[in-house]
């Protein structure tokens, strides 16, 4: 560490209480602080700091603003863009904000829970499941509260209760000027900006979320053999266009997997995740999916279980068949048969037609059909820019090993998004939490960009947030 960097370390160490700790490289805590789900999202920071209180975090931000030092804040570390929650400067890790407090109303009923942004969603589900309660959050294990929530948050419960941000009652945020502020819907601009505007307005420490009664659910994963993709495509289209049961949710991930256990090079299969919010699956809801042919070596795991058990059973780390990751998306006003068919064609035919020039270990395309009411559960917010009509995410994801292929990965992800977008031209929208780093702000925030810029300038006069990565208004 240079003497200047050592000065910053000392200045922060002197300014904080015993509840906060700093870690130099070569410590286990430092490694944990800079670790990301996809290794390509990590950088070597000067040192890491785990703030233990909002006051300490405020002191840290004031020092970073005064010294103009690069920094980053990490919650669950699932950002798929390098530099968004990683830095070569000071790494802030929200690991100590892990409180889970059930709030009782006058009748002693729990209607909300206050949680720290250092938690992962599955940690919250583990705590709430024994209480027969739930919140609207991430769908697979390991995803952090901080990033998913502040970007929007599609959930297994979105068809019933909207996005994760639609279920926030209150934020506590450390503003860029070091003020610790409680933000509710009475705070027009910050309330608008924090719901979807990610890390533009400071660091959120705790949030209060609506809770819902949660009993046993039915669901899990089935690996559908590529030979049955025609039937899968028909079933997905049928579900997307005709399902009326808001308790039912699906996440079909068409993929090419080059895994060590797989004898065929580039096996085609779909990770089909099915969720029904009820202990018993009503007749007919997923019948077409039940009839699909499964991959023999990968047993189907669909059953009645707790919500926490369901989420923790999803093997999201199988999607990490290389250290490098790219995630992008498009949002479509309706999921047409042509979208699903094109996804199937890309996986089965178009990639093969490239004649071997496909250096990716895991290639995945997913459609996310929710109920058309999905944006009606919340008031105007940074994301989505419009709430009067549905837009459904289509996710595009590759993972690979060799950094020499980075540019090719980003280019091909973008080309695939364009190809799918051309099926129903007219909407350029992208979901901010599945967006390549150079995605234009307008594609994610539409007409909200100007207002969001004004809010950022109002609350970040020192331009502290320009010293960290992410989409900047
Ligand atoms: C395997 C996988 C599954 C996913 N599943 C879903 C899903 O079901 N639904 C969905 O909507 N999205 C999903 N996503 C996308 C996910 O929402 C984003 O990757 C999100 O950024 C992850 O949040 P995090 O806290 O884990 O990430 P981090 O890398 O910690 O943070 C992401 C961004 O948020 C900022 N940030 C984090 N904490 C704070 C804070 N406390 N205050 C201010 N800014 C903060 C960071 O600076 C960074 O810019 C998934 C992604 C992956 C890789």
UniProtKB/TrEMBL annotation:
**Keyword Flavoprotein in annotation:** yes
Keywords, comma-separated and alphabetical: FAD, Flavoprotein, Oxidoreductase
- Which is an annotated GO molecular function term of this record? FAD binding
User: Sorted alphabetically, which InterPro entries does this protein's record hold?
Assistant: BBE, FAD-bd_PCMH, FAD-bd_PCMH-like_sf, FAD-bd_PCMH_sub1, FAD-bd_PCMH_sub2, FAD-linked_Oxidoreductase, Oxid_FAD_bind_N
Alphabetical list of Gene3D superfamilies matching this protein: 3.30.465.10, 3.40.462.20, Uridine Diphospho-n-acetylenolpyruvylglucosamine Reductase, domain 2 (3.30.43.10)
| FAD-binding PCMH-type domain sequence ranges | 39-214
Superkingdom is: Eukaryota
Any one Pfam family match given in the protein's UniProt record, by short name: BBE
Name the family: Belongs to the oxygen-dependent FAD-linked oxidoreductase family.
Name listed for the protein in its UniProt record: FAD-binding domain-containing protein
């Amino acid at each position: 560490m240079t003497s200047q960097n050592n000065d910053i370390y000392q200045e922060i160490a002197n300014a904080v209480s015993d509840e906060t700790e700093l870690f130099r490289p070569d410590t286990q805590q430092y490694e944990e602080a800079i670790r990301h789900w996809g290794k390509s999202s990590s950088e070597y920071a000067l040192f890491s700091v785990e703030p233990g209180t909002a006051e300490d975090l405020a002191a840290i931000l004031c020092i970073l603003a005064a010294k103009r030092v690069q920094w980053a804040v990490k919650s669950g570390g699932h950002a798929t863009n390098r530099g968004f929650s990683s830095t070569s400067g000071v790494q802030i890790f929200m690991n100590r904000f892990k409180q889970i407090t059930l709030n009782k109303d006058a009748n002693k009923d729990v209607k909300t829970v206050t949680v720290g942004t250092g938690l992962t969603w599955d940690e919250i589900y583990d705590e709430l499941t024994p209480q027969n309660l739930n919140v609207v959050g991430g769908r697979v294990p390991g995803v952090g509260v901080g990033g998913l929530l502040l970007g929007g948050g599609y959930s297994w419960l979105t068809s019933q209760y909207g996005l994760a941000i639609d279920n926030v009652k209150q934020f506590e945020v450390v503003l860029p000027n070091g003020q610790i502020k409680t933000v509710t819907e009475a705070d027009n601009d910050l309330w608008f900006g924090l719901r979807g505007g990610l890390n533009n307005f400071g660091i959120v420490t705790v949030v209060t979320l609506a809770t819902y009664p949660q009993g046993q659910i039915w669901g899990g994963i089935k690996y559908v053999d590529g030979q049955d993709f025609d039937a899968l495509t028909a079933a997905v289209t049928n579900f997307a266009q005709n399902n009326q049961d808001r308790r039912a949710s699906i996440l079909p991930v068409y993929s090419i997997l080059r895994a060590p256990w797989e004898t065929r090079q580039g096996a085609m299969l779909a990770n089909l995740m099915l969720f029904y919010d009820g202990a018993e699956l009503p007749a007919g809801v997923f019948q077409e999916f039940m009839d699909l042919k499964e991959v023999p070596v990968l047993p189907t795991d669909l059953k009645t279980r707790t919500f926490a058990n369901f989420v923790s059973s999803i093997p999201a780390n199988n999607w990490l068949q290389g250290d490098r990751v790219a995630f992008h998306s498009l949002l479509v006003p309706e999921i047409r048969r042509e979208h699903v068919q094109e996804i199937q064609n890309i996986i089965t035919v178009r990639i093969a037609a490239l004649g071997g020039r496909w250096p990716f270990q895991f290639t995945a395309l997913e459609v996310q059909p929710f109920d058309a009411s999905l944006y009606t559960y919340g008031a105007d917010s940074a994301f989505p820019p419009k709430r009067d009509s549905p837009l459904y995410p289509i996710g595009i994801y590759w993972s690979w090993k060799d950094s020499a292929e980075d540019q090719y990965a980003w280019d091909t992800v973008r080309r695939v998004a364009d190809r799918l977008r051309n099926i129903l031209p007219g909407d350029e929208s992208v979901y901010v939490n599945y967006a390549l780093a150079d995605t234009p702000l307008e594609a994610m925030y539409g007409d909200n960009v100007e207002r969001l810029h004004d809010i950022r300038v109002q609350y970040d006069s020192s331009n502290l947030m320009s010293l960290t990565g992410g989409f900047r208004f």
